Amino acid sequence: MAKTVAEYLQPVHAFLACETPDAWIAFAAREDQLPALLADHANCEMKAAQTAQALMWRYGTPRTHSAVDTSGSQASMLHKLSRLAREELRHFEQVLKIMKKLSLPYLAVPASRYATGMIAAAEKHDPQALVDKLIIGAFIEARSCERFAKLAPHLPPLVADFYISLLKSESRHFSDYLALAETFAGTNIEARVEYFRQVEASLVLSEDAEFRFHSGTPVEAA
Known about the structure:
Blueprint: H1 5-15, H2 22-28, H3 34-59, H4 74-101, H5 113-120, H6 128-151, H7 157-165, H8 167-185, H9 190-205, E1 207-208, E2 217-218
Parallel strand pairs: 1-2
Helix pairs in contact: 1-6, 1-8, 3-4, 4-8, 5-9, 6-8, 6-9
């Protein structure tokens, strides 16, 4: 039996330290912000695919000479990340299709500080760097899932239905990243997860100069 929206969101809400502020939702749902919302969403899907492929190439292939002892876990990593990358590219195509149907331009939208802020908090050397990247991936996917669900009731039906349809894959991406982080850490990662939980919440709850899919609340809406 198919899961309900609430069932997909339960582990996501348990994982995140906070919900997206209502002020961000109200701003993102404005009709004049739809072009920027969808353009940045498209960019996020493309970047998510690129990130998965970069992790596969660096840590999952025989050519890798890294400090990470993968101990036979490459197969699991390659399978999960290959599937994730294909799905993210498919989502990218779907966003572009929706934008075309709505006669919206694919705008040039600079990246937000969200992913940059998360990555800046990560260790720079393996093996911890890999674990941190995977934990960050889990938070990005979890936040995406939370925002899709929270935004959907306020958006045009075409976009709303699409966002609800993404909950299944986004919630799985979140759990896949977290499972991979646990595998490659080889030890309890809760302290590290809690560290990034607070970093992520700070980025979401603070004001942002610009509106993006993963931004904090825009200053003009705060």
